[in-house]
Fold:
Amino acid sequence: MKNKSLISITDITKEDYKTILDLAEKFEKKPKQKILENYVVASLFFEPSTRTRLSFESAASQLGAKIVGFTDASSSSVKKGETLKDTIMMVSNYADIIVMRHPKEGSSRYASEVASVPVLNAGDGANQHPTQCLLDLYSIRKTQGTLDNLHVAFVGDLKYGRTVHSLVTALTNFNTTFHLVSPVELKLPSSVKRYIKEKNLDYFQYTELDEVIPKVDILYMTRIQQERFSDPFEYEKVKNSYVLKNSMLDDSKPNLRVLHPLPRVNEITEDVDSNPKAYYFTQALNGVYVRQALLALTLGVK
Amino acid sequence: MAKQEKRKELKVSAIENGTVIDHIPAESVFQVISILGLDRIPNQIMVGTNLESKKYGKKGIIKVSKKFFEKEDLNKIALVAPIATIIVIKDFTVVYKEKVEVPDFIDKVVKCINPNCITNHENIPTKFTVIDKEDLKLHCHYCEKITKKENISFK
Ligand SMILES: [Zn+2]
Structure:
């Protein structure tokens, strides 16, 4: 994976997943290692995303790398009308690797084509956010002991949620059975179902949450945003139907874990937080180890 | 080649050297001109449209003198003229005659349907993979969204 950009989850082979997750496991045991002391990481946030930026910068700092960059486009030359190409070519001169977040879809792929150093996509508009996906996979493997043959439920906004799209696509490598729970207007788009169908995997669609919970190993919750509905009345109808309460986990499998990309609003009630099956806070922390693994592999240090 | 057939082809190939694009749906003639960039070259070009065709209804035909195209460029016109025929003429003789084919990849000419795609905001040539040749579905190399047949427009 040395010198290879990571833009989309579809760039990752099944073997790569294992390499990345295995190395992330080692970093979890020992996150502070000065192996990137001679490297400069450019952290280019063309739109603010505090969560992702802190996770990446913490990952890089713990490995001893220096960080240069900007935290939103308003404080950079981008605001003065510089093209993306010019910004990326300029930054390529100052850094060994670029971590980039940008509001336009496809921007990271394009940057990887003009940059002379590898690019790690930290989110390009609504398109891809592969490190989020990798930390989800890491969390699944860690809690289940395997990625293979699991029953995974996705709940909420399956139409616009890019984390859902990426994770569904990635899981098609592991013989997953998909349980898709959403309002009719927020069903998983056919462009993503295509990957499930290509691998001949089973998927089931539901509009009710209750019946799914006892069947699955992973319950992946997402937020339903009001602005996704053209009719506010439609939103009012569904907004409380996809809320997970602690009592609903009573009949769930012992190995079930609840994941959520965070931040949550009301889709998981607070009484779930103390349930040992709630994993969403640890899940976010795993992002640091996965990002350390990617930095080290891409720079060819591991 | 039978005599009669030869005479028919001579009529079509009334240019000495060049490329003839036949069986273009009449409504797509001007799109073909733009896809091939014919409005930007100095060559002699003859354009006919709304001609009667027994087989295809109203058709168009374009004859470009002293110009030979790359196959991949010609295949781009399959997006708007799926049954077009390409005839290459050298010395008043037909040396090549084939139907266009929808290509596997399409560069530059098509606009991505996604308004938030980087190719619609910076000066970046588009790139698509054709994931469905019958129904025409184009997968954007950059934003990964699909542009369908009914949404295809040209840059
Ligand atoms: Zn696009």
